[in-house]
Write a structure and sequence with these properties.
By secondary structure, the chain is an alpha+beta fold. The protein has 2 domains: about 200 residues, no CATH class; about 250 residues, Elastase, domain 1 (Roll). It is about 20% helix and about 20% strand. The strands form 12 sheets. Strands 12-13-11-3-29 form a 5-stranded mixed sheet. Strands 27-24-32-31 form a 4-stranded antiparallel sheet, with no helix packed on it. A 3-stranded antiparallel sheet has the order 2-4-20. Helix 4 packs across helix 7 and helix 8 packs antiparallel against helix 10. It is elongated and about 95 Å long. This is Leishmanolysin-like peptidase. Its main location: membrane. Its EC number is 3.4.24.-.
Length: about 625
């Protein structure tokens, strides 16, 4: 039986990869500034013990009974009550003066992508909001020459003398405007409480829970790594450890890419990845995670999770926190009581930890270390569980995307002892085949993050079945291939005849019809239920606030209806296929009943198919 040739002319046998994340590298170089211990007893942070424990003075004729816990005023109680209910996080975007001037075209591209990413994160994460204007802290070690250390003095732990060369505060190379900062003062005498003000308190940033400085430039790191799109770090935290401000550096070169319609989604996915890092998905913040699950006033009566990192019997470092463990058990369909989420074992620091998931086990997650084609990346429930377990956020799990990789495969899935066996997700040779989401033709390859395991990776050129433009690259009429947003990769050797088709189709697992949220970028539409809360944009260049661009949502993936041509295909299959193949076809037909089936072909046999070539199936 003749094999259908690959319709994508000039295919390069290399996977399409956008570059790795360097978050751990840059975050370790940043000093995070928090309120000075014992000093920040102001209205800015009503959820800290210093701010909410306001004594109530009782009338002398009716003294209050002695209590070891400070009493709170009714005003403070009302404020705490209003703050106890998490609301969508408000992320304010600020373009600093250091950022070079962008063309209108570049700026539009940049802010559209950043707005969409911020909108998506705001729809996923809720936080106990900052009640007043957000004020960042000054680093006492930068402006202060020495601090009064004697605990018996009135001005204990306050600055006694200022440094003469103090100029400004910065966040990952960005100068923080004075209006964003709290004031600072010195106390020349240890027993005199009257300070000398060095810098007055700024006005703060209104309606903000996290301040994101967006700096666009061709930096040394951008030039050193051509595939690097962006990197970020957080630089300020509140008294509970929650990040308050950070800087996102976006490499300028990608803004000039010609294929921007596609690159736009790459940029959005990259910004979401970096935002998750600076908001809390960081190994440096593991020790600050809190359990607020039983607290009536979350953030007030929380306690530390304790040790959340441990190494399993196979030497794999894992994150063990309650919501993460439950998410892993559900995903892998396992009752294993010690099933934490594995952390990447490559590019780790001296502490042996990484701020990314292990690629072998959680391939396709938004927080994997290697950024790939955006249509293959999922904002998964395990990542959201990790953010929930910080104790700072309430997560909207209803917006989590299906993490297809390894679902239901058991607690040993992705281990080095099992990944070298051929399976639904892993392959063992260098054949061509289909990526596990069936959106791309692929080749069985490995990378440094897979530790020698092999998977089908998308080819670098014209491998997307969903990209209609690939049809122009040289379609073989005999194969019957059609490219479009409804096309998917299948294993088949069908050829087109005058009267229909001849050949076999290998029916894959039911994932083609099971997941309603799997769709390529070309199928994305604006979300109807997008939250009205958007990102505000401000700038040192008098950039005005603007409405956030709506975040595109994935169109539900309808099941397959069989057209006239497909009836002919089914007839051919019923004659030539084995009984098991026919049974699989019937199962697919029953589960997929509302879209047409189209067929695409590749050139070489996959690792597990009884047929020689692979093909793609599309659906309308």
């Amino acid at each position: 039986m003749p094999f259908a040739p690959c319709v994508c002319i000039g295919i390069l046998l290399f996977p399409c990869t956008w570059g790795k994340c360097i978050f751990d590298q840059v975050q370790r170089s940043i000093k995070v500034v928090s309120p000075p211990t014992g000093q920040y007893a102001s209205a800015h942070w009503p959820l800290s013990e210093a701010a909410i424990n306001v004594p109530v003075t009782a009338p002398e004729e009716n003294p209050a009974p002695y209590s070891s816990k400070p009493q709170r005023s009714k005003r403070a109680e009302r404020r705490i009550e209003s703050m106890a209910v998490p609301q969508p996080i408000r992320i304010k975007i600020w373009i600093p003066s250091e950022s070079p001037a962008l063309s209108d075209w570049e700026r539009e591209r940049l802010m559209t992508a950043v707005d969409e990413a911020v909108n998506e994160v705001s729809s996923l994460l809720s936080v106990r909001r900052v009640p007043d204007n957000l004020l960042l802290n000054r680093d006492i070690n930068k402006y202060c020459k020495f601090i009064w250390r004697n605990s018996s003095t009135v001005n204990h732990m306050k600055c006694g003398r200022a440094k003469e060369n103090y100029r400004f505060e910065s966040c990952f190379g960005v100068t923080i405007p004075d209006e964003h900062l709290d004031g600072c003062a010195v106390y020349p005498h240890p027993e005199h409480p009257i300070p000398t003000v060095l810098r007055p308190e700024g006005t703060g940033v209104p309606d903000t829970d996290f301040l994101l400085y967006v700096f666009t430039h061709s930096t040394d790191k951008c030039r050193a790594e051509s595939s690097l799109l962006a990197y970020a770090a957080h630089c300020q935290a509140d008294p509970e450890g929650r990040p308050l401000a950070g800087t996102l550096v976006i490499c300028r070169e990608p803004l000039n890419m010609e294929r921007y319609t596609h690159e736009h989604y790459v940029q959005v996915t990259t910004v979401i990845h970096e935002l998750f890092h600076v908001l809390g998905f960081s190994k440096d913040l593991l020790s600050k995670r809190k359990d607020c699950s039983l607290s009536s006033q979350a953030g007030v009566d929380c306690w530390s999770h304790g040790q959340v990192i441990s190494t399993d019997e196979m030497g794999q470092v894992r994150l063990y926190s309650p919501t993460v463990i439950r998410a892993m058990q559900k995903h892998l369909n396992s009752t294993h009581t010690d099933l934490g989420a594995p952390l990447e074992n490559k590019d780790v620091g001296s502490d042996g930890l990484s701020s990314h998931w292990e690629a072998r086990v959680l391939q396709g997650s938004i927080m994997a270390a290697l950024l790939v084609e955006p249509s293959l990346i999922r904002i998964d429930h395990i990542t959201l569980a990790a953010l929930q377990d910080t104790g700072w956020y309430s997560v909207n799990f209803s917006r989590a995307q299906s993490l297809v990789w390894g679902e239901g495969e058991g607690s040993q899935f992705g281990s080095l002892s099992t990944c070298h066996n051929s399976s639904t997700f892993f392959c063992t040779d260098s054949a061509l085949g289909c990526h596990y989401l069936h959106l791309h033709k692929g080749k069985c390859l490995t990378d440094p993050y897979l530790d020698g395991c092999h998977i089908f990776k998308p080819l670098a050129n014209a491998s997307e079945c969903w990209n209609k433009e690939n049809q122009r690259s040289g379609m073989n009429e005999g194969s019957g291939e059609i490219y479009g947003s409804d096309s998917r990769c299948f294993i088949s050797n069908l050829t087109r005849l005058v009267s229909g088709y001849r050949g076999l189709v290998f029916c894959p697992d039911n994932r083609l019809c099971k997941y309603s949220d799997l769709a390529p970028p070309t199928s994305r539409q604006k979300a109807d239920n997008l939250l009205s809360v958007g990102a505000s944009i401000e700038s040192d260049h008098d950039v005005k606030e603007k409405d956030a661009t709506p975040q595109p949502s994935l169109v539900p993936f309808s099941s397959v209806i069989v057209s006239k041509e497909e009836i002919i295909v089914a007839a051919v299959l019923s004659i030539m296929a084995a009984f098991s193949l026919l049974s699989s076809a019937v199962l697919i037909y029953r589960k997929c009943s509302s879209a047409r089936v189209r067929v695409h072909a590749a050139i070489e046999p996959p690792y597990r198919s009884p047929l020689s070539p692979t093909q793609c199936i599309s659906r309308n």
